[in-house]
Amino acid sequence: MRFLSHAETMRLFQRACVRAGVKVAYSQGYNPHQRMSLVLPRSVGVESDDELLCLWLVEGQTDSTSSPQAGIDNEALKGELPDGIEIVSVETSQAKNVPEPISARYIMKVQRQRIDDGIRQKISEILASDKFVVNRRTGEDSGTRPVDVRPFLEAIKAEQGQVAVDCKISQAGAIRVDEILGLLHLKTTDLTGPVKRTGVQWKGL
After folding, report:
1. What residues contact 14, with CB distance under 8 A and at least 6 apart?
2. CATH 3.30.70 fits domain 100-203
3. In what helix (H) or strand (E) does residue 105 lie, and over which residues does it extend?
4. Which of 58, 94, 120, 162 has most Cβ atoms within 10 angstroms of its Cβ?
5. In angstroms, what CA-CA distances link 51 with 4, 26, 84, 152?
6. Chain segment 132-156, per-residue pLDDT in tens
7. Beta strand 133-137 with 144-148: parallel, antiparallel or unpaired?
8. What is the SS3 assignment for 82?
9. DSSP result, 68-88
10. Where are the domains of the chain?
11. Closest-CA residue to 122 (of 90, 151, 96, 156)
């Protein structure tokens, strides 16, 4: 499942909701589509155990006295999802806006011989600096623009065969997984498993 793009993951949930009979509301206009949002897009190749999917249900499906699973047959929806995707909980909300992600942790399992004094020194340099600029790719034209990613980094720890990076997320953006690897001078061949995003903190949830 980690190799699905954001758009493909959205289509997966759209089709699962139709098959499970979840009455998702549709947008208006010439090209109506189901009103749903995976609030924090996930990079291709990255696992996650903390995704948030927001659905707008057809009016009348929920109200202030609804049970947590009102309007959604949880078991039916689970039965339409492929292996690798698990529904942890379902809750209703009367909020007008979707929650905002404010932080997340990335776990990178690294070959033990790469967790050495060199990488620890690099982590110390990054955290001690006030500014760390990377050239961020801007699109298919291979263009780049300088971005200071230091404000997005809260903590980095390297121990027991893995690197854990705590990242801030704001309206200004966030740091990307490939940028984290670049800062630490790590290649994908140095990893012993997929990168995992976990521990997402939300504002308004």
Report:
1. 24, 33, 34, 36
2. yes
3. strand 100-109
4. 162
5. 14, 22, 13, 20
6. 999 988 876 778 889 999 999 999 9
7. antiparallel
8. coil
9. TTTT--HHHHHHTSPTT----
10. 6-79, 100-203
11. 156
Q: Are 49 and 106 in contact (CB under 8 A)?
A: no
Rounded CA-CA distance 107/92 in Å is: 30
Residues 190 and 111: beta-carbon distance below 8 Å: yes
Q: How confident is the model at residue 177 (pLDDT cuts 50, 70, 90)?
A: very high
Amino acid at 45: G
Query: For the whole model, what pTM was predicted?
Result: 0.87
The one-letter amino acid at 14: Q
Provide the edge-to-edge strand list for the sheet that holds 100-109: 47-48, 196-203, 100-109, 162-168, 153-159
Per-position b or e across 47-82, b if 16+ CB within 10 A of its CB: ebebbeeebbbeeebbeeeeeeeebbeeeebeebbe
- What's the mean pLDDT when you consider all of the chain? 89
Eight-state DSSP code of residue 123: H
Quote the tokens at residue 47.
């696992």
The first and second tokens of residue 188, run together, are: 């994908």
